[in-house]
Amino acid sequence: MKIIDGKAVAADIRAQLKDRIGRSGKEVGLAVVMVGDNPASRVYVRNKEKACRETGILSRTYELPEGVSQPELEALIVSLAADERVHGILLQLPLPEGLDAGSALAKIPPSKDVDGFSAENLGKLVRGERALVACTPLGVMKLLESAGISPAGKRAVVLGRSETVGKPLALLFLNADATVTVCHSRTENLKEICREADILVSAVGKPGFVTEDMVKEGAVVIDVGINRGADGKLCGDVDFERVAPRTSYITPVPGGVGPMTVAMLLCNTAAAAMEE
């Protein structure tokens, strides 16, 4: 069993990106829009700002009060879309109750959609065309690549069908020539399906959801979940201590997929700037 160290892989990616941006001479700009005072969102935004500073990306955070109206939020996004200094726009989710995230996200041009959530970018992913890809799924693929694991010809099982992780990840696996099964809350015979996986990815948001009897010997297990356990500590979807001995490779939480999500956001922002 080998642990895939996402923190180390992300640090290497950031170093390469810093060099690439420095050599390009381009000023790369990211705008982050945050509404309200969600503590988790504030931590994520702080981490993104720090990573931007490390790589030479100019990050601006626009904080709006919880009571902001939908037109006010969308007016800000439209103004950022027109700003030539801004190459990527990130709307920090979730939004406070009463605001329509879908409508707000639709105001972000696909060329500045560094989260990869737009209909156009998802559509390009379906067609196997070049696109800005959702950061967490892209980070999963980069982690596999860093460990020398090719999905081609393998059975990949994805737990979770969200538009931010499960669905785009399934498409990335398909485009990489894997045979893909997506499981969800209505899936029957879940354990049996999971035991067929060469690569098992969990993105359900339930601590300890993946147990050792769901994993076949020698499988690769990628844990996307970020949860708080009963002890208050960060944990993933996978019962790491019991599952790890059965795997060939596994990612920890924290220190696995999480750092890669931020690294891929920076890569997408740089890509958007370089392709102007």
Folded structure, characterized:
The protein is an alpha/beta fold and 276 residues long. 40% of the residues lie in helices and 17% in strands. It is built from ten helices and eleven strands. α1 runs parallel beside α10, α6 (135-146) crosses α7 (166-175) and α6 packs across α10 (257-274).
Spell out the key features of this protein:
276 residues; alpha/beta; 6-stranded parallel β-sheet; 3-stranded parallel β-sheet; globular
List the helices and strands and how they pair.
Elements: E1 2-3, H1 6-24, E2 29-35, H2 39-55, E3 58-64, H3 70-81, E4 88-91, H4 101-105, H5 119-126, H6 135-146, E5 155-159, H7 166-175, E6 179-183, H8 190-194, E7 199-202, E8 219-223, E9 227-228, E10 234-235, H9 240-243, E11 247-250, H10 257-274
Parallel strand pairs: 1-11, 2-3, 2-4, 5-6, 5-7, 7-8, 8-11
Antiparallel strand pairs: 9-10
Helix pairs in contact: 1-10, 2-10, 6-7, 6-10
Please summarize what this structure is.
The protein is α/β, with parallel strands linked by helices and 276 residues long. It contains 10 helices and 11 strands. Helix content is 40%, strand content 17%.
